[in-house]
Design a protein that fits this description.
The protein is globular. It has 6 helices and 4 strands, in the order αβαβααβαβα. The chain is an alpha/beta fold. The protein starts with a helix and ends in a 7-residue tail after the last helix. It has a 4-stranded parallel beta sheet, sandwiched between helices. Helix 3 runs parallel beside helix 5.
Length: 205
């Protein structure tokens, strides 16, 4: 919790003076937050590229560049590094990913979204530029799905008011991206059914 609070305090401080592009990444199987992990190195390169893109966009538009704020959400996706043996950890790590997605992961992602909401609340709609992107890869996709699935289902339900008037379906942050998510399609069925039942969406959606 100390790590989470330290990160959130830093983001809250950074967002008070500028817009942020917050990118949270949850790694998959055979990876962790250990120094030298390949996913960490790649994530850093992606953040550096995003920062360069923001600077380029700023030069073209004259608008201030957003500060890129990356958050690597580590869990024990890899427990052993011995070839062949590590392949035998698939089901154990799959079960762990399902558990990691509940509780703490939901909290940290929700608190990131709250930072974005707080920033948006003091900006006129046309000036709101702070963004939150959440990415999960492989078992990390399962982690993100478990963390946010029920939140998104609840937001589908809240689209109909007491008078039966429908509104937009509120998403989570600005983008949730699952790359090759490693979980059964049946776990996505509830969200799929709710989106299909909706039938149509407003142009603002």
């Amino acid at each position: 919790r100390k790590q989470m609070r330290a990160i959130l305090n830093r983001y809250e401080l950074e967002s008070s003076g500028q817009d942020l592009l917050m990118v949270a990444f949850v790694h998959g199987w055979k990876h962790s937050a250990a120094p030298g992990d390949g996913n960490i190195e790649t994530f850093r390169k992606v953040l550096a590229r995003l920062s360069l893109d923001e600077a380029q966009i700023s030069r073209q538009t004259g608008k201030p560049a957003r500060r890129v704020a990356g958050l690597y959400l580590g869990w024990r996706g890899g427990t052993v590094s011995v070839p062949v043996v590590e392949d035998l950890t698939f089901w154990e790590r799959k079960n762990t990913a399902q558990k990691v997605g509940h509780g703490g992961m939901t909290e940290v992602l929700s608190r990131l979204e709250q930072i974005k909401r707080d920033k948006d609340s003091v900006e006129p709609p046309e000036s709101r530029a702070t963004r939150l992107v959440v990415i999960g890869h492989s078992f990390g996709g399962a982690v993100v799905h478990n963390a946010l699935g029920q939140i998104l289902e609840s937001r589908f339900v809240r689209t109909v008011g007491p008078a039966g008037v429908q509104s937009d379906v509120e998403g989570f942050g600005n983008l949730v991206l699952l790359i090759n998510p490693a979980f059964e399609a049946s776990q996505f069925a509830a969200l799929s059914d709710m989106s299909a039942e909706r039938g149509s969406y407003f142009k603002t959606q």
